[in-house]
Fold this protein.
Amino acid sequence: MGYPDQRFDVNLSILFTELPLLERPAAAAAAGFSAVELWWPWIETPTPDQAELDALKRALDDAGTQLVGLNFYAGRLPGPDRGALSVPGAESDRFRANVEVATAFAASVGCRALNALYGNRVEGTDPAAQDELALENLVLAARAAHDIGATLLIEALNAPESPHYPLVSAPAAIEVVDRVNAATGLGNAKFLLDLYHLSMNGEDLGQVITAYAAQTGHVQIADNPGRGAPGTGSLPLERLLDELADAGYTGLVGLEYKPGDRPSAESFDWLPA
């Protein structure tokens, strides 16, 4: 057991960001990774030119890297936003416009997991109305994901860093997963279990794993404190990943940590050769 038994992918929106987007897949491959994931790369638009989508597909193909996870349009991320789908008006419209584009791109590269960040609470807006809009948009996304054989991921973030994001516990995210699956009848909504975010919320990680491993569609890690590489903080990540495997999780583990003040390629020294 331990790290040698895990299958890791690299999040190219937090690692290798010292390089232009189109150079990151090759850099990940050079560091020994065949699988990568991404936040929505075009922060300013949910509907980039086809040429930009084609260029990213080429970069992934040329590097021999498999895209295993992609966020739907989520506003300014990194930045003040935490998703668009529950934000009434223009942001919700942008999310809807993105659903077709993101799923078509995912299908073109064989990506089978799409992460839909919920969005922040908006001051002066009824939270119940936001939740209603969220369900509507998540049902749309779940159906589009199902059409390409993909999973829709719902992620819990952490309250200290995302104080206006309503899903800041595993049970809160699971509740949305259940609601979406009940509305669609498709069963393709799953929990994105991020050990860093849940630890920042002070959750009992062993208990979360036991309770929700069966509903987990993807796992992400970073150490705490600091959101650095494993071993830079105090989280027993190796043991927690073993517990996930024991609980039946067989998927990839996304590396979504900050490399610190060194090049990303030098931040994998915690991994067994």
The radius of gyration is 17 Å.
